[in-house]
Structures are given as C-alpha cells and as structure tokens.
Design brief:
Length: 154
C-alpha cells in the first residue's frame, strides 16, 4: 500500500511548525513520556491507524516500554501491568477518542479520576496529546499512510 499523497502538514510548512511546537509543549507538560506513549498508542488503536500504531510502538520501546505492557494496552482494563495514573490517562483517552459513542463522553467521573492522578498542567498535556494523536490518526487514515512508511510525521 502506498499513501495517496504526502503528509498534508509537510505540504503546508506553517502547519507542520505549529504541530511540532504543540508536540514540544506536550512533552514539557510533566507527564511521564511512557504515559504519553500509552495515550498515543491507545487512541491510535481505537482509530485503526496502522501508521500511528507502528510509530507508537517504536517510540514506546525507545522510552523503555516492555513488550508485555505494549501487548496489553488494547486490554488495559484486564491487565495488572498499569499504574492507577496510567489507567486514568487511558480512560480519558478512550472517552475523548470515542466522542461520538455517547453524549458527554468524558464524564465527570472519568475526569475526576484523572484529576486525582494529574495536576492541571499534566491534564492539559494529556488532553493535547489525545487531540494531536487523533489529528495524526485522521490524517494518516485519510491519506492511507502505510505502517512503517516514513512519510507520516518524520
């Protein structure tokens, strides 16, 4: 499979600069890199973005993530390998990524659970990571960016 076109953000340099700046800000938000990688991976799994799943697996491994945990992200609720903070981040990720599934997808209960684990700056980083990942997912699935293709966000 080949992509339908180059990454649109690469064709519009101002867009790429904005995305890169947003990504850098997220990385400085005080959330462990491992947690952000789990957020990215889970949203990408939900959205069926093979390029982002592939990229997410590689990035998570570079950040020291184990295969055992990566294999269980898709079933994190049944796994004992994730911390309470990671679970809260994954719960927000699923709710925010599945907005169309129900009204008020990110419930007060889900938000309160996350707010027990993260301060406001960290929550901002998680919310922005979810949004960025969903942006990446939608772009890559629209242009049919193949997994392992280095034209996505490199």
């Amino acid at each position: 499979m080949t992509a339908r076109m180059k990454n649109p953000a690469m064709l519009l340099p101002d867009a790429m600069t904005g995305i890169q700046n947003l990504y850098k800000a997220v990385q400085k938000g005080g959330v462990p890199a491992e947690t952000l990688e789990l957020v990215h991976l889970r949203a990408s799994q939900i959205n069926g973005c093979s390029a982002c799943v592939d990229f997410g697996l590689q990035a998570a491994r570079k950040n020291g993530e184990t295969d055992a945990r990566l294999f269980q992200v898709v079933a994190w609720r049944e796994s004992d390998l994730f911390t309470d903070a990671e679970r809260a981040a994954l719960k927000v990720t699923e709710a925010a990524t599945r907005l169309a599934d129900r009204p008020d997808a990110v419930t007060d209960e889900i938000w309160a659970e996350a707010a027990e684990q993260f301060d406001e700056q960290q929550l901002a980083a998680i919310v922005l990571m979810i949004g960025l990942t969903n942006l990446f997912n939608r772009i890559n699935t629209t242009i049919r960016q193949p997994a392992g293709g280095n034209g996505s966000w490199a």
